[in-house]
Design brief:
Layout (H helix, E strand, L loop, with lengths): L4 E2 L3 E2 L9 H11 L5 H8 L3 H13 L3 E6 L2 E6 L16 H8 L28
Antiparallel strand pairs: 1-2, 3-4
Helix pairs in contact: 1-2, 1-3, 2-3
Length: 129
């Protein structure tokens, strides 16, 4: 589609998206808690170094925890984590992740909470319920 124009927006700016890179990385991790940083980089169109910095940000602010699983890392999205911006601060990120990444399997024990898909290996997108 050529540039979209309306009386309110003018000509569409190239490169503008709704989600931040931080959101994309968090969504990729919520889809696959054992995903490698290089795979996140490819999926999100970012460099590995950028993904590593984003994961560090998300860990530092309590959105993720990382544990070693052999030679790989496993990530756990913090249950109950809330959006940072004051306009959305009252909302948990789990709703957005569930909508964009598929249902979240969040156990009641926060120490054991790991984000997983319901069906391993199922790569079909799921409709929000």
């Amino acid at each position: 589609m050529a540039g979209v124009e309306s009386e309110h927006t003018g000509h569409r700016r190239n490169g503008w998206t709704f989600l931040t890179n931080h959101a994309r990385v968090l969504i990729a991790i919520s889809r696959d808690p054992g995903i490698r940083l290089r795979d996140i980089a490819v999926d999100c169109g970012l460099t590995e170094r950028t993904v590593q910095a984003i994961v560090t940000d998300l860990q530092a602010d309590g959105y993720l925890t990382r544990t070693r699983d052999g030679r790989r890392n496993r990530y756990v999205v913090a249950p109950g984590a809330r959006f940072r911006h004051p306009a959305e601060a009252g909302h948990e990120i789990a709703g957005l992740l569930a909508y964009l990444a598929g249902p979240l399997g969040v156990p009641t024990d926060p120490a054991a909470a790991e984000v997983t898909n319901d069906t391993p290996g199922d790569s079909e997108p799921r409709a929000a319920v």
